[in-house]
Design a protein that fits this description.
Layout lengths: L1 E4 L6 H4 L1 E4 L9 E11 L1 H8 L15 E9 L11 E4 L14 E5 L3 E3 L6 H19 L8 E4 L5 H12 L3 E6 L2 H10 L3 E4 L5 H5 L4 E6 L2 H10 L6 E4 L11 H7 L2 E4 L7 H16 L8 E5 L3 H9 L5 E5 L1
Helix pairs in contact: 2-10, 3-4, 3-9
Bound molecules: NADP nicotinamide-adenine-dinucleotide phosphate.
The site of NADP nicotinamide-adenine-dinucleotide phosphate has 28 residues, from helix 2, helix 3, helix 4 and helix 7.
Length: 320
Amino acid sequence: MFAARFEKTGPAQDVFILDQVDTPEPSEGQVRVKINLSGVNPTDYKGRSGVVPRTFDGFQIPHNDGSGVIDAVGAGVDSQRIGERVWIMLAANGNRFGTAAEYCVVDSQLARPLPDSASFELGATLGVPAVTAAYCLFSDGPIAGQTVLVHGGAGAVGRVAIELAVWAGARVIATVSSESKAQTASDAGAQIVVNYTDSDAIAQLSGHGISRVIEVNLAANLELDLAISQPGMKIVCYAADGPDPVLPRRALMTACATLEFMLLYNVESDKLRESVSMVEEALAQGALTMPPHKLLPLSQIAAAHDLVEAGSAQRVLLQV
Ligand SMILES: NC(=O)c1ccc[n+]([C@@H]2O[C@H](COP(=O)([O-])OP(=O)(O)OC[C@H]3O[C@@H](n4cnc5c(N)ncnc54)[C@H](OP(=O)(O)O)[C@@H]3O)[C@@H](O)[C@H]2O)c1
């Protein structure tokens, strides 16, 4: 099969090898998916560049997310799954056959049914961002009636967090840094969108009774989060770009705030299942929509990684 792989980490333009590798066979409990689209996320360029060290077995075909059709199953998997449209999550987690190839093999439960109402494009955007967003929103149970602040509401995680929170009955406030990103967050369902670079951002975000913050940059936003907090507010952090924050214990105590951190690769399996099922329910009910995106051929994977690494405001998908 044709695949993009790397055998050492480094800059995208240097390390990708595009050629044929043996088509993998599904092992026990696995399915093989004929890939339609492969989704690129920040975690993929971090693993490829080596900035977040990860081990791999000889070579790594990157990308956790994708969509396609199951064409073979391993022992113990219902053969009725052959022909099923699926969206894929966590494909490259401890597995060298990620989605940047004609075929990938993954554990059967990581290939999720894609309803006929959902396009392959939408399916390839779900994985890491949607499941992360669902975990951050729902890790303490239902959020109906709550007011949730989603920082970075035009980002991959942020935008789908808005859609999921609105679907779950919450009122959503989002922050962004530009007018075009404000439009994206507002189109996703945010009722109030604030440019966090505005000098009066704190005033704009105050007094709304925010009980949950979905935080993309704790170091930059902690002061703001505390300034708008009410007792019991929880800040759920899913990103670690930039410097580590200094924790102001007294201010956090005074605010009676809770900090939670999560990494999708390591969350407890029952919480992961719950998060996936929330994504699936929302998807089945048509609550998740296609984000602004750019399609590139698989052969342009290095350019795709460079775009995501540069902070593209569009989701980047590779056509296989
Ligand atoms: N823990 C996990 O399991 C997990 C899962 C998914 C993603 N992540 C990580 O989360 C981060 C974001 O991922 P992503 O895919 O959503 O990336 P993305 O699509 O690039 O979105 C990031 C968004 O954050 C915004 N942003 C940056 N600084 C901000 C600030 N101080 N306040 C408000 N918004 C801010 C950016 O827009 P502006 O710069 O224009 O504001 C951008 O819209 C990455 O570091 C990724 O590796 C972690």
